[in-house]
């Protein structure tokens, strides 16, 4: 499930950049945008699945908080993908969407890889 999670957000990042540039250059990227929107559900579904599947009984509360921040930022990121692509489609200035996009992705990569997958909570 983690592999599917990683695959889906890697694909989504590549597609979002492709769609954003495509709209800017007046290309027809409607199908790519549609696939990107489908990926939001895969990212959300796999992320929630991983979390629900974890043993949480003995999880320290600071770790629980990190998971909540990770998931909250992950959900916000799905909205930022749309903000990024639609801003480009509407020919708005891209500085703010690009900045938020980059900061959120970096924060998610940091948090995601920092979180202890397969951590032994009973040790
Ligand atoms: C575009 C958005 C997202 C990005 C870039 C992202 C990135 C990541 C990364 C880098 C990891 C670590 C994978 C590993 O340790 O091998 C991860 C794991 C995880 N993600 Fe996401 N994620 C996103 C969205 C979400 C969403 C929406 C949720 C849930 C609502 C979520 C929940 C999780 C959970 C529970 C883990 C397991 C963390 C662990 O125990 O190591 N993610 N994600």
From TrEMBL:
Protein's UniProt name: UPF0344 protein
InterPro entries: UPF0344
Transmembrane segments: 6-23, 35-52, 64-83, 95-113
Pfam families cross-referenced by the UniProt entry: DUF1516
Keyword Cell membrane: yes
Keywords for this protein: Cell membrane, Membrane, Transmembrane, Transmembrane helix
Species of provenance: Gottfriedia solisilvae
């Amino acid at each position: 499930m983690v592999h599917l999670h990683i695959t889906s957000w890697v694909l989504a990042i590549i597609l979002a950049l492709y769609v954003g540039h495509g709209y800017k250059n007046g290309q027809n990227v409607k199908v790519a945008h549609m696939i990107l929107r489908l990926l939001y559900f895969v990212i959300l579904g796999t992320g929630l699945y991983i979390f629900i599947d974890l043993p949480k009984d003995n999880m320290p509360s600071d770790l629980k908080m990190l998971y909540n921040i990770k998931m909250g930022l992950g959900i916000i990121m799905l909205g930022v993908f749309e903000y990024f692509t639609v801003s480009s489609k509407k020919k708005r200035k891209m500085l703010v969407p690009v900045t938020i996009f980059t900061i959120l992705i970096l924060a998610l990569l940091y948090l995601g890889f920092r979180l202890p997958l397969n951590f032994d909570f009973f040790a």
